[in-house]
Amino acid sequence: MKNITYPYKRKPKNNTFKEIAPRVYWLRLGMPFSLDHINLWLIEEDNYWTLVDTGPNTSTSKTAWQEIFSTQLQNKPIKQIICTHSHPDHVGLAGWICENQSAKLLISKGEFEFYHQIFANNKPTSIAQAQTFYQQAGASDDQIKSYFKHIKIFSNLISLMPSSYQQLQHNDGITLGKYQWQVHIGRGHSPEHICLFCEELNLFISGDQLLPTISSNISVWPTQPNANPMADFFLSCQDISKVINNQTLVLPSHGLPFYGGENRLNTLSEDAKQDMACLYDFCLQPRTVSETFPILFKANIDENNLMLAFGEALASLNYLCAQGRIIATPDENGIKYYQQTGA
Ligand SMILES: [Zn+2]
Prior knowledge:
This protein has about 350 residues and is α/β, with parallel strands linked by helices. It has one domain (about 15-280): 4-Layer Sandwich (Metallo-beta-lactamase, Chain A). Helices cover about 35% and strands about 20% of the residues. The chain contains ten helices and 14 strands. It has helices at about 60-70, 90, 95-100, 110-120, 125-135, 140-155, 230-245, 260-280, 295, 305-320; strands spanning about 15-20, 25-30, 35-45, 50, 80, 105, 165, 175, 180-185, 195-200, 205, 250, 325-330, 335-340. The strands form three sheets. The protein has a seven-stranded mixed sheet with strand order 1-2-3-4-5-6-7. The chain has a five-stranded mixed sheet with strand order 8-9-10-11-12, with helices on one face. It has a two-stranded antiparallel sheet with strand order 13-14. A hairpin with a 4-residue loop joins β3 and β4. α5 packs across α6 (about 140-155) and α7 runs antiparallel to α8 (about 260-280). The mean pLDDT is about 95. The structure holds zinc ion.
């Protein structure tokens, strides 16, 4: 089997539960972005629900949730929310639903901290740090302004997070819906992304770590300018391949549930390696980060995707730097130029 297959040809109606395995329900929530939906998962207990991810903090999501509260929960509260990672579409309404349902939040320490470092941090030091980070990447003043504008938009898509949480760690076992699930931490797309595997049902809730049709953004952030998330991503692909097989039903945050997870992991790794081979060739001459955009991205880079483009290009460049194949040299203004070392 080379590819992936979809057992559900059609998406379910928004805001209604669809049972896809014993006690496991699929909830598709619409989003007002170019990525127009997120899949959330609910696991039914005798007296309550466990919810995986929440949707973003928008008025339409809140309205949808009000409808879900009154029509889908069968008078059972949501008692716990597991957030796969701290991006706004996954964690956005965690605080709001926790308060509404008296639920507790379960998340990894890395994701809880990432939220506080990136989305809930307006300290002058972190603003200066981000400014230097993008200046070194060759961003213009307008582009840097756009970064701050977008971080603010992102931050507003997350309702105030609960101040306490229950930490989930790699290999933790958790009973959900009478079945045993195992926490599997993925890396690259976010620092400590929670995936959940149920061996008995052969189900894998993959979040954004493994998606059927799009590759998730792998970015370097101003808080850790020399990070190498691409290496983390490759390692995670190998690790997940040891957990799931092509017969595992993968439940992704975007797109349709699918079989062929191992094949998809291989494709994602191979595609990323291919992109980096092209990037390496392109760095025969010294290049700034933004000069690499046409090599790495098919989409036009505008204000809306600029921040992710800088982050993702840097992730590829940092990977090649860590391998000693390219080197970054700053010019007199501090702008970094990346070039092959010949190694
Ligand atoms: Zn994400």
